[in-house]
């Protein structure tokens, strides 16, 4: 079979992009072909993927989306495929991989004027073209919560939803790393024995709440704060958050890294993961933290937040988010070394007994009608 994958942007460090690549490779491994339509591709291109860069000229993202969709439809008419799989929402998909939160639900409290905007109307139209009742598009879900949100707004039939297991790369697991990884990492980055290293991994600093973390660290008692180092890893411009760190007088303790391929090392070298995202359909970094044995404090807005509770590996914050609750949670955890060790052990135990790795195989089964 020839399968078309539609994704607006590919870069190696986004959660959606990593899921896309794993599913593509799984389909290729079964002897099928994959053609990718994308507006932007960063990083290496696997030689067995047919990657087609879609030309767009619009300045605005919604204009680019519309141009992309029309160009792809015309190309598919001239060069047909067996299935069309979307990793972004658009009309005429056979399968949609639901890696983003429900737009209608996330914007339900917006003003009347905002809902008249071209931006709102575009995203609602493209979302409805996937989820409206009566359509045939199969929907690959990451969490049950997402299903409830979509059905609330579009009355989508139960039979069209397929819940996927998580899809962590098994190589991220703690027991796949060299035994001295933590010591070598902390020596390389000059982390002292009495210091606690806090980590946040994300490709959109504002959406994932880096500002919330900076405010929480600035709020720590001085005796705790002076022994904290905070690493922020991910593909985004650090300028705005760096300015915030300076205004909070914690700039010397905060270090920004771009996207990296050695996240497993960062997780093994850290003491606590922070992920206070404003919204997150799933949050693969939550599971990667757990399989690394790294305790985590995560916002309840994340689809995978429940795994933190299941693993007893950290704290899930209440929604709506409360900055004081977050501040206090970090403070309490940093004062309790025994609790951190317990959470780390719990996380490893959970990773040993739970299937957190099967997403790509299940998605490929559904795409190829082998489920």
TrEMBL record:
<dbReference type="InterPro" id="IPR001296">
    <property type="entry name" value="Glyco_trans_1"/>
</dbReference>
<dbReference type="Pfam" id="PF13439">
    <property type="entry name" value="Glyco_transf_4"/>
</dbReference>
<dbReference type="Pfam" id="PF00534">
    <property type="entry name" value="Glycos_transf_1"/>
</dbReference>
<protein>
    <submittedName>
        <fullName>Glycosyltransferase family 4 protein</fullName>
    </submittedName>
</protein>
<dbReference type="InterPro" id="IPR028098">
    <property type="entry name" value="Glyco_trans_4-like_N"/>
</dbReference>
<feature type="domain" description="Glycosyltransferase subfamily 4-like N-terminal">
    <location>
        <begin position="13"/>
        <end position="172"/>
    </location>
</feature>
<feature type="domain" description="Glycosyl transferase family 1">
    <location>
        <begin position="182"/>
        <end position="349"/>
    </location>
</feature>
């Amino acid at each position: 079979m020839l399968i078309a994958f539609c994704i607006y942007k590919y870069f190696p460090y986004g959660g959606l992009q990593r899921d896309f690549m794993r599913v593509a490779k799984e389909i290729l491994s079964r002897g099928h072909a994959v053609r990718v339509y994308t507006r932007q591709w960063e990083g290496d291109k696997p030689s067995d993927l047919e990657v087609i860069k879609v030309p767009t000229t619009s300045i605005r993202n919604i204009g680019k989306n519309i141009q992309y969709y029309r160009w792809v439809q015309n190309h598919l008419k001239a060069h047909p495929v067996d299935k069309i799989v979307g990793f972004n929402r658009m009309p005429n998909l056979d399968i949609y991989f639901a890696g983003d939160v429900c737009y209608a639900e996330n914007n339900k409290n917006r003003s009347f004027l905002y809902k008249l905007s071209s931006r709102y109307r575009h995203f609602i139209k493209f979302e409805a073209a996937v989820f409206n009742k009566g359509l045939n598009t199969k929907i690959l879900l990451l969490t049950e919560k997402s299903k409830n949100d979509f059905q609330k707004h579009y009355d989508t039939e139960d039979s069209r939803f397929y819940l996927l297991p998580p899809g962590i790369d098994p190589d991220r697991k703690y027991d796949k790393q060299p035994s001295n990884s933590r010591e070598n990492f902390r020596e390389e980055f000059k982390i002292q024995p009495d210091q606690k290293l806090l980590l946040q991994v994300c490709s959109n600093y504002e959406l994932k709440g880096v500002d919330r973390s900076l405010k929480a660290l600035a709020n720590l008692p001085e005796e705790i704060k002076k022994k904290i180092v905070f690493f922020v890893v991910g593909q985004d411009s650090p300028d705005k958050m760096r300015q915030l760190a300076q205004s909070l007088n914690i700039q010397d303790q905060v270090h920004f890294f771009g996207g990296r391929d050695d996240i497993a090392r960062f997780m093994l070298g850290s003491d606590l993961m922070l992920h206070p995202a404003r919204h997150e359909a799933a949050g693969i970094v939550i599971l990667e933290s757990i399989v690394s044995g790294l305790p985590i404090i995560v916002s309840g807005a994340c689809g995978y937040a429940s795994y933190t509770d299941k693993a007893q590996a950290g704290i899930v914050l209440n929604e709506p988010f409360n900055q004081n609750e977050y501040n206090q949670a970090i403070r309490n955890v940093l004062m309790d070394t025994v609790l951190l060790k317990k959470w780390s052990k719990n996380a490893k135990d959970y990773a040993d007994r739970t299937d957190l790795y099967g997403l790509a195989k299940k998605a490929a089964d559904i795409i190829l009608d082998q489920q």
